[in-house]
What does this fold into?
Amino acid sequence: MIKINLAQRAQASFATSTGVKSAGSGLLSKLSGGGSSSDALGKILAFRKVILGGVILFLASTFVDEYQDMEIKSVDEQISAIQEKAKQLQAFVNKTKSFDQLKKAMELDALVMTTKVQTIQKLVEDRAVPPRMMLSFVTATPSGVWLQELRVGKSEINFKGSGSEFNQVSDFMRSLGEVIYISNVTLKSTQQVKDANGNMVASFELTANRK
It folds into this structure.
């Protein structure tokens, strides 16, 4: 009984091995279209090469896309940095313009204030001159000369009066010539007339330029 079972197992194993070989041969035959086993193996290797090439192309394409994305991101960051620097520069330029405008405004204000101060000083000086000028006229008037009219203009001064003699009128003109506030003392007219008391006097009219 044992020998019979072993023989049966050996036959079953042989049958299985034969079936596998037959199945493998059938698959190779289908791939080769009925050709030899070497042709089928070549087609399998070629198919594997095609698959491998596709995988390589896919990986390469993926790497290129990722590299391009990285480069684009880097360029975008550089552009953003340049734009930020441009904004900062523009802000500095605007501040500089504002400073220049403020400086011009301050210079203009300073000029206006200086002009006002000069005008005030001139007015004060002009107000101080007439009393001094009047005092100098009084000092320059010799005895025997009487001023009847004195007109002080912006540029010219007119004297009208009389003297007991023409010599006093000449002395008055010389004294006025020494006054620092006037120049070009000129005798406009002179004549001998009677005064209110009936005495003969020398009337005169003088002009002088105001300095």
In short: Residues 9-25 have pLDDT under 50 and may be disordered. DSSP finds three helices and four strands in the chain.
